[in-house]
Structures are given as C-alpha cells and as structure tokens.
Request: fold
Amino acid sequence: MTANKTIRVLVADDHPLMLEGIAAVIGSQSDIELVGEAADGNEALVLFRTLQPDVTLIDLQMPNANGIDAVRMIRAEFPQARIAILTTYRGDVRALHAIKAGAQGYLLKSALRKELCDAIRALAAGQRYFPPEISAELMEYMGQDCLSPREIQVLKLIAQGLSNKQIAQELVLTEDTIKGHLRSIMDKLGANNRTHAVTIGIERGFIEL
Reply:
C-alpha cells in the first residue's frame, strides 16, 4: 500500500448503531474510507469478493455465520486479507480462535473510538493489532492447560444448572467420571467452586450463556 492511497474498509456487524458509530469515526479520517457494510458473515464474504477491501472489521457474534466463521471463509479464498475481530468480550479463548482462523487484529468495542483508526492503519500496513490488555491475557493463559472438549461439554451443562447426576445421565457417563472432570476443570481454571468455574469459563470464552 502506498502512503497516499486511501485505506478501503469493509465492516461486518449486525448492530446498526455500531455500524453508524464506526462509519462516523472513519468518516472523520482523510486517509480511511468505509466502502461496505455487512450484517452477517455470509454477506461479509460476498461483499469482500466484490469490494476487495484493504481492511475488514468483523463482529465476533453475528447471525448465519459468526465472526470466526467469516474470517475462515474469507481467508480461505483471500489469504492476503487483513482482518480484525470486533467484540465486546475479552475472553482469551475467543482471541485465540480468531487468531487461528486468520485474524490479525482483535478490537474491543468499548475502545473503538480510541483505537479503531490506529488498528486500521496498522493492519493496512501489514502489521498485527492487539490491545495491550488482550496481549497480556493471551500471554497469561497461553501456557495454561486448555479445557478438553469433554470438559467444555461438562462446564456447559453445569452452567445450565444440571447436577453431577443429571450431567452423568445426559452424557451417559458415571457420576464419578463427572466429578473427575469437574475437579480437572476447577484446577485448570483456578476456580473455587462450580459457580466460579462457570464465571471464569464465560469470561475466558470457553462457554457462552
């Protein structure tokens, strides 16, 4: 990208107010132009094919195809795509999924007014953009054990209010096996009890309510 070229941006978000806010911030910049708006991941892919933007901003949670799916689909067809995830969540697991899917940036919606343009310029210049608090959390959790698929399944059922006995029946396992999974979950998350484990699981993005 040359220094004089306007950075063309595509935004995918299913919240009209968020789109308006982003458009207003971008509209105040002479070197950045909003060229397209999508309401879901599938539409983002269609618009990307047509517009070939320099930078794409994608909401993490959207109907039809979520942000992670949209990143995967776009990067599968356009490996050179420069993409940042937009989210209200700081969960490190979501950030890791976004990075593995091919995103080069991760922006918290609460900080968009302050960081949006810096992030767009960084991505357009071929750099990555992760806010300090996201980078710190990634570093903090990178070395920790991740929950296994079965442990995530158990944690989801705990979050739904099921007892160990009910979870055992649901998963066709013994109650002792469920207790073992629960101990492992609490150890890995550093949780004090079931409720604390669910809270941490949501904060870190392992599960959603």
Remarks:
- The longest helix spans residues 175-189.
- The chain has two domains: 7-139, 149-203.
